[in-house]
Amino acid sequence: MQSAGISCCAFKLYVEGGQDAHPTKVKIYLTLQFKCGLAYHNVREMFGLSAQLAIHAIRRVSGNRKTAKKDGKPVNKFAPTSVTYDTRIFSFREKDWTVSLTTTGGRERFVLAIGNYQLGLLKGQNPKTATLCKRSYGSYYLNIQLESQPAEPPPCNQVLGCDLGRTDIAVTSDGDTFSGKQITEVRNHYAKLRANIQRKATKGTRSTRRRCRELLKRLSGKEKRFQTLVNHTISHRIVTKAKNKNQVIALEDLTGIRERTNQQPRSQKERRLSNSWAFFQLRQFLIYKAIKHSVKILFVEPRYTSKMCHKCNHIHPVKGESYRNGKKFACGHCGWKGDADLNGSKNIAAIEAFVNKPEGSRLFCKVQDHFRAIESPHCSCTQVRAG
Length: 387
Hints:
The protein is built from twelve helices and 14 strands. It is α+β, with helices and mostly antiparallel strands.
């Protein structure tokens, strides 16, 4: 077994490494291939998997460990929630609407229990990949991936800025507001309901504890499904409007915001509401819907977008101070007053419009210069203009 693994490593090293390969990289690559070669045979013997299923399992675990190592988190266990399939172990047959999957017991064929919408999507298609998922209550469903080539986005010079938040999930620069009040009420309702049920489950009789566990099982996923529905609706409306008006969608790049906010001292309720904010899911929905409808979507750095007035491009001259107070924004320079998220979305649209210009973003450079000037104790009030 070891000699076979070494032979495989040597072959890959000869083909991909060559004589000019770096010694350190060659050593790491050789070690990884050797370990994967040993794991491959062990996995097949231990679990009775086919060759392709074993390769997919090793790839999934390796990717999971790589992500955990990058984030500095330990890997204690792997939950058996899904299996990935490709053309070697998966096939779709349209004449009887069935799929063939390789299992530990051999090749099995299953009839698809799907609706007319899914039938219309699959008609005339030749899917090559799928993911078999296991729900928490024991049932299985198959995600079939369909490939398509969307049209190139048409040329446009208009930008639709979107400011994401919790009070209002999304506010566009055209004035559309998607309130988050209903989502907050649903979250608070389920949080209070789960707390009451768990309290009864710890103090009640055996039959009470059993009924509480059954109730928690039925409630599981309801809040998540409601949030998903809302994000689908919001993303669909934003992308549809941008397509109809031939606009580019501009969003804030909020990568790492949850880690940064969790470092600040907050109440337990505030932490729960912040951590349940599904902004990343909304972003993913916007991306794939924009690709589907040939709408260009871009991201801008969120710095200064909530502190700068979109009318006069002015920022508060005192470091640490802002013209924004909650949902209200009142500029002390030009006197503009209005919704703070609307102001932020218009700034996002303006920054993206300047970034796309051939001469670059003069607005953003001037804002950075303004903030560097604020750090000086001898500075006076500075006005930032786009021109």
